[in-house]
Automatic annotation (TrEMBL):
Keywords: Cytoplasm, Nucleus, tRNA processing
GO CC annotation terms, alphabetical: cytoplasm; elongator holoenzyme complex; transcription elongation factor complex
Pfam families: PAXNEB
Pathway(s) where this gene product acts: tRNA modification; 5-methoxycarbonylmethyl-2-thiouridine-tRNA biosynthesis
Subcellular location: Cytoplasm; Nucleus
Region annotation Disordered: where it falls in the sequence: 373-394
Any Gene Ontology biological process: tRNA wobble uridine modification
Family: Belongs to the ELP4 family.
Protein name: Elongator complex protein 4
Record Gene3D superfamilies: P-loop containing nucleotide triphosphate hydrolases
Length: 394
């Protein structure tokens, strides 16, 4: 009979150990840093995007790209298994991860999502900081000479692993995706339902490689190297927990035959993944969801963020001196491995989607205005006067 230490942890590609718990990256280094390093295994990561359907899908692409994590690819060394809710993709040689993927979408082909996965690029030093430092060497500060030795403020939130970046303008090679064994739910002939999706999840997770080493009903003779991670992305908008296109403003999509069961499905999913090597990402648009129901969704998650988009980003440049696409609100951070959660540098955050990357920055107060200046067309001097300048008549 094989013996095993209770403290023994599985060695899974794409995971790190923090406070005796395994965690994995969500693909975006800024979000990883806000979480304290990454998403703990068996964790649920939620992005609630208001007034838009653009930016949460970018974070979902980061999350899925982390499954492949291709630095240099070799088609002969592919992942083991992939399934789609959006659930997870394996890796290749030079490729660090070898996870699994499950895709469940009642409205679109999973290949549409996989075809837009960004490609990893090696970037040891941040280009923006190197450019700014080179400019500073050529033209040193002359007026504020006492601050010449003070480094410039960089509002961008960066992770510790600067060499792991994804270029949104480059997509992963189609040959890598075509060689993967992708399972889809539902099939073309049947309608989607939460109950059937639940049954398929149970079937997928019955595989021994997703269970912890010390599971009571696990195989004590299996090795740590046989363990793998299942990455699940449940996209909103067209998938579970989101509005259906622009035609339906309901929490459960009518394309699911039992759309009233979404909260029950979430509760069961939250309990199920506690016993497996699984991470889940949800994208939601809660504009039309009842606040109490929305809070229940948040309560099932380990990390939750709200993205409040701005109608006219140009106004932010005039009011704050910097342009951004919206505010990035922290609702909940993981606290699985400790009593308290990670304390980020600031909770006043903004996000901006560039051509090649998605940035999260700290929102700084605008500079002090002169007495002559005006804000939004209102004269500061006139607005500061008392409404009545004459003597009061009692």
């Amino acid at each position: 009979m094989a013996t095993r230490s209770l403290n023994e942890r599985a060695r899974i590609n794409g995971t790190t150990v923090r406070l005796r718990y395994l965690e994995t990256s969500v693909g975006n280094s800024a979000v990883d840093r806000l979480m304290g390093g990454g998403l703990p295994l068996s964790g649920i990561y939620l992005v609630d995007e208001h007034n838009s359907r653009t930016y949460a899908s970018v974070l979902a692409r980061y999350f899925l790209a982390e499954v492949l994590m291709v630095a240099c690819f070799n088609v002969n060394s592919l992942l083991d298994h992939i399934v789609f809710i959006l659930v997870e993709i394996p890796s290749f040689s030079g490729v660090i991860h070898k996870h699994s993927l499950l895709i469940a979408s009642p409205s679109r082909d999973p290949s549409e999502v996989l075809s837009k996965l960004p490609q990893k690029v090696e970037e040891k030093v941040d280009e923006r900081s190197s450019e700014s430092s080179s400019i500073g060497d050529v033209e040193p500060m002359k007026i504020a000479w006492r601050y010449a030795s003070v480094p410039k403020v960089d509002s961008s939130i960066k992770g510790q692993r600067l060499n792991k970046q994804y270029d949104l303008t480059k997509t992963m090679d189609r040959a890598l995706i075509d060689c993967c064994d992708i399972s889809k739910y539902p099939s073309d002939e049947t309608s989607a339902s939460y109950s059937q999706l639940w049954n398929q999840l149970i079937q997928i997770l019955s595989c021994q490689k997703y269970r912890p080493l010390n599971a009571l009903n696990g195989d004590s003779n299996s090795s740590s190297s046989e363990r793998n991670l299942l990455r699940i992305v449940i996209e909103g908008e067209r998938i579970i927990l989101e509005q259906i296109h622009v035609t339906t403003l309901d929490f459960g999509s009518p394309m699911w035959s039992d759309s009233e069961m979404e909260l029950k499905f979430m509760a069961r999913l939250r309990t199920l993944i506690n016993d497996y090597y699984v991470v889940v990402m949800l994208t939601v648009n809660s504009n039309s969801i009842d606040p109490q129901r929305r809070d229940r969704i948040y309560s099932y998650c380990d990390a939750a963020f709200v993205m409040e988009t701005i109608d006219d980003p140009k106004l932010t440049a005039s009011n704050f001196g910097d342009s951004f696409d919206g505010y990035f609100r922290i609702v909940k951070l993981p606290s699985i491995s400790s009593i308290g959660c990670n304390c980020p540098e600031s909770s006043d955050l903004t996000f901006e989607l560039h051509r090649r990357r998605f940035d999260i920055k700290i929102l700084h107060l605008p500079p002090a205005l002169d007495d002559d200046s005006s804000v939004d067309g209102i004269d500061k001097k006139s607005s500061s006067r008392l409404p009545c300048q004459s003597m009061l008549d009692f």
